[in-house]
Specification:
Elements: E1 4-11, H1 16-31, E2 36-41, E3 53-61, H2 64-71, E4 79-84, E5 108-118, H3 122-128, E6 136-142, H4 158-169, H5 176-186, H6 190-202, E7 205-208, E8 267-271, H7 281-285, E9 291-293, E10 299-301, H8 311-315, E11 322-326, H9 336-342, H10 344-358, H11 369-372
Parallel strand pairs: 1-4, 4-5, 5-6
Antiparallel strand pairs: 1-3, 2-3, 6-7, 8-11, 9-10
Helix pairs in contact: 1-4, 1-5, 4-6, 5-6, 9-10
């Protein structure tokens, strides 16, 4: 077998337990067959922050010497299988260490498999992921992102389904019998085993060819060496506010141009400016100062700064004026206000299309726990007809 490695990509805190269960259970299944393994979290993710992308890694080897050698490389440069627990991470991820944007498929080895929970077709997901020079496989587990975090574990079978799909992608890890035993000991009972079996049998992968995907170049930062840093600890102030666009009017708060936060969100606000009463509540309540004030008094959400918390939607007093939509419906981070002023009819169609594709119903305001992290549920399996969004009370 040699050395097998994998990673689990997830939303920090919100999916912490889910990622840990997937990673640890896969290792324990391999250990049952006399193999050696280790499961660990990415150093730059600790301590985790709400919603900020994070990773778990796993190494499996035949001998302890091989494990010691590969584990000395703390973060793998390539993995056989990547497991993404939230499809809103397709446009890239940045740890809270803020060291630049890493493509979702960055460390999936050539010919390796990227497994993702999603209700979207592979073409739509590939379109958002950064292109690369080598091919890889994309395997989709039907279902939304599952909320299984620090304080609540939504036992909807997502962990078992990811484990079954991982074994299908990399069968040399262990036998199905060993995986089933590990699931019973560490995840759940017969329902979870059945979910893993169904996922193993149903898993299919599409080849993503070299050069397919998003052409955007991920942003990076130059890390200064010891001889290029200034003496002492010096942090430059962000600076004062500016006018909106080329105008001296309006108000755009001072922002660090290198501090991008958009990869932390799973949803974004969509505004219908013709319904806006300019009440200022969204602007006042936004914890990240993500709204720019236009010269005529509207509030334009800056998609580089917005983290998708949903406070603005919860506080907006006008029905359907400001609504949150699933991030996978968008391919841009453009100004909604500028789209609206340049062509109101086209923007109206834009809003209609995005809400149709991305709006999540029955979502609890601010947190989005009920609908945004709904999952299919054990009883739902792979059948869309039995899928139902659960309430916070049921969670």
């Amino acid at each position: 077998m040699g050395i097998v490695s994998f990673e689990v990509i997830y939303r920090g805190v919100f999916q912490r337990q889910l990622a840990q269960k997937i990673s640890r259970t896969m290792i324990l299944a391999a250990v049952k067959e006399g193999k050696h393994g280790v499961s660990f979290g990415r150093y730059s993710d600790s301590p985790e922050r709400n919603g900020i992308p994070a990773k778990q890694f796993g190494y499996i080897t035949d001998t302890p010497e091989e494990l010691e050698e590969i584990a000395a490389q703390y973060e793998p440069k390539q993995v056989d299988v990547s497991i993404c627990a939230d499809d809103t991470l397709t446009q890239g991820l940045e740890s809270w260490a803020w060291t630049g944007l890493q493509p979702l498929n960055a460390v999936t080895k050539p010919g390796g498999t990227l497994i993702m929970t999603s209700n979207n077709p592979s073409e739509a997901l590939v379109k958002q992921m950064h292109r690369r020079d080598t091919p890889y496989k994309l395997s989709i587990l039907k279902g939304g992102a599952s909320f299984a975090g620090l304080f609540v574990y939504k036992d909807d079978g997502t962990d078992a389904r990811c484990l079954g799909a991982t074994l299908k992608a990399c069968p040399e890890i262990c036998s199905m019998a060993s995986l089933e035993a590990a699931i019973r000991e560490n995840v759940g009972g017969d329902h979870h085993v059945e979910a893993a079996r169904a996922s193993f049998e149903d898993a299919r992968s599409d080849e993503v060819k070299a050069g397919e995907g998003n052409t955007e170049v991920p942003f990076t930062f130059e890390l200064l060496g010891w001889d290029s840093m200034r003496p002492g600890v010096v942090i430059d102030a962000v600076g004062g506010h500016n006018g909106y666009g080329d105008s001296k009017d309006g108000y755009v708060p001072g922002r660090n141009p290198y501090f991008k936060k958009w990869s932390t969100r799973s949803m974004r606000p969509v505004l219908q400016f013709d319904k806006c009463t300019k009440c200022t509540l969204c602007w006042v309540a936004c914890p990240d100062s993500a709204f720019d004030v236009t010269p005529d008094g509207y509030f334009d959400p800056n998609m580089e700064a917005c983290i998708g918390c949903g406070v603005c939607e919860a506080i907006c007093p006008v029905p359907e004026c400001l609504q949150m939509a699933y991030e996978t419906a968008f391919e841009d981070r453009d100004s909604q206000y500028q789209m609206w002023t340049s062509d109101k009819d086209a923007f109206g169609k834009y809003v209609e299309d995005k809400l149709s594709a991305g709006k999540v119903e029955n979502r609890h305001p601010i947190t989005g726990l009920a609908g945004a992290f709904s999952g299919l549920g054990l009883e739902g399996g792979h059948n869309d007809k039995t899928f139902s969004t659960k309430s916070l009370k049921e969670l």
